Amino acid sequence: AQSVAQPEDQVNVAEGNPLTVKCTYSVSGNPYLFWYVQYPNRGLQFLLKYITGDNLVKGSYGFEAEFNKSQTSFHLKKPSALVSDSALYFCAVRDWGFSGGYNKLIFGAGTRLAVHP
Amino acid sequence: DSGVTQTPKHLITATGQRVTLRCSPRSGDLSVYWYQQSLDQGLQFLIQYYNGEERAKGNILERFSAQQFPDLHSELNLSSLELGDSALYFCASAGEDEQFFGPGTRLTVL
What is the tens place of the pLDDT at every residue in B27-55? Predict the structure, then answer.
């Protein structure tokens, strides 16, 4: 079965410092991996995806993620954190199910990122 | 703005009642997914519809049902509500690979 794990409930970082939010995955076949962000009282916003190709994926708001097949990881990174980056971050993997095509996302538990001034 | 709309934004109701949540996907998207976000269960997939037909089912309770109409909007019906059904309910529609989420409906069961 497909799954993702986010080992940290919360990550604290000072503004201007680099940030990393960790995600590991377990899938059968090639993984389709995603990061989403949720601000308070808002829906989930798509940040970036890894489907195939370069292991370093660039996304919205200066975020990037590194796909590492040998470590089955897909960590989210940003070189310089902003206070406005404080939010809940979810890693997700697509579960193809029995019929392929567009299928459901399986989410990690989420990591709360707190960026302090 | 993701282009996915959901109404209402908030719902407060009593145990035993029935409610309907509505979702309109992005223009051109045929798939609609419903997810439940609760403190103890996290984000869980409930059900998917594609062009009017049920495509995949997750941990959806028998008290819950959904449908997708010819204009592609979808409704999630929750009946015999219990306190534990209080949660944020999201719908999403599918782009080429990623899903785009609506703002959610916050359901409070008292």
Answer: 989 999 999 999 888 899 999 999 999 98
Instruction: Round to whole Å and give the CA distance between B46 and B48.
Output: 7
Q: Looking at chain B, how many residues does it have?
A: 110
**A49 vs B contacts (CB less than 8 Å):** 97-98
How far away is chain B from the Cα of A46, in angstroms, using its nearest Cα? 7
- Tokens linked to A24: 């590991």
Helix (H) or strand (E) holding B54: strand B53-57
| B65 contact partners, CB below 8 Å, separation of at least 6 | B76, B77, B79
Residue A54 and residue B63: Cα distance in Å, rounded?
45
Minimum distance, in Å, between the CA of residue B14 and any CA atom of chain A: 22
CA atoms of A41 and A82, how far apart (whole Å): 20
Q: Which residue of B has its CA nearest to A52?
A: B97
Are the CB atoms for A36 and A47 separated by under 8 Å?
A: yes
Chain B environment of A89 (Cβ under 8 Å): none
Average pLDDT for A64-92: 96
Q: B28 in contact with A at a CB cutoff of 8 Å?
A: no
Beta strands in chain A (DSSP E): 3-5, 10-14, 19-21, 24-26, 33-38, 44-50, 56-58, 64-68, 73-78, 87-94, 105-107, 111-116
